[in-house]
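Input sequence (335 aa), recorded before submission:
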Amino acid sequence: MNKFLRSSLFQAFVYLVLVYLAGVMGFKIIYNYTWIDAIYMTVITITTVGFGEVHPLSTSEKIYTSVLIICSIFIVGYAIKVASEYILSTNRIGNLRLRKVQKQIDLLNNHIIVCGFGRNGQQAAQKLAAYNRPFVIVEMDEEVIDKMDDDLLFVHGNADEDETLLKAGIERASTIICALPSDADNLFVVLSARQINEDIKIISRASQETSYKKLKLAGANNVIMPDRIGGDHMASLVVVPDLVEFLDNLTVSGEQDSINVEQIAFEKVCPDGAEKAIKELDLRKKTGCSIIGYKTSDGEYVVNPEPSTLVQQNSKLIVIGRPNQIDNLKELYDV
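Predicted structure, token format:
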């Protein structure tokens, strides 16, 4: 709870007690009321309920009562305001939603953290959702959070603060995507993430050329420059338009009717652990998909590998096919 709110609530309570005691003691000591009558007069005066006085008031009693009413109006109004803010801050629907979401986040392992829910962050979230990958969004703009779908997991806070990243489960996460609009903010997130979790994969966005090397030195595994990609893509549409349009049609968006490229790990195609040559797998005959790439266990990529290439442990195959062929691949190998 906010410390300022707690102190205000205590202050309002003290004011209420003081005005109540002032009323009771004033009627008792100054005007010689009985304790019961003094309490009664104080209560009906402070609450302004309009019940009758215990006896007709003298001029001085009327003045004293009027001053007590004016003071109590402001104090009671202030107390109601503070109490209302307290109730809303501790029980509002938003806080209930935060607690519910946090419980779900605490159960996640090997999930992805997306920092920033701007244009790039939303695109990343859509892709992850399409592939049914668990992810958590870190966003500090409350208005953006309010507009999110109810099924999205999120943390409200500044992504460059360790406490926020810990709430997102960075210690258990497999990947973090830094999609904040500021390169400086992304740099802070990369540094924090690498310090907390040495094994996490970090993918960061960059706007400036000078930020690329800094982010890599800070610990980012991959640095993406959307502006460079966009400019290169537009130029390619001029130089090799047919090729670019063809590649644009090879999507990995995750939609069942549009997937054309997929990756498959060694343990999926060789469940027994025995290394085999690509021609022995015979993926083309089994699924209709063609192998267009091979990622070795050392992380090197081989384009259009030879049929005799040995598929080794910790490697991956990149295949291409029509949507129905990709579906066959997923069904056969449980991708």
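Checked by second reader. The first strand starts at residue 112 and ends at 115.
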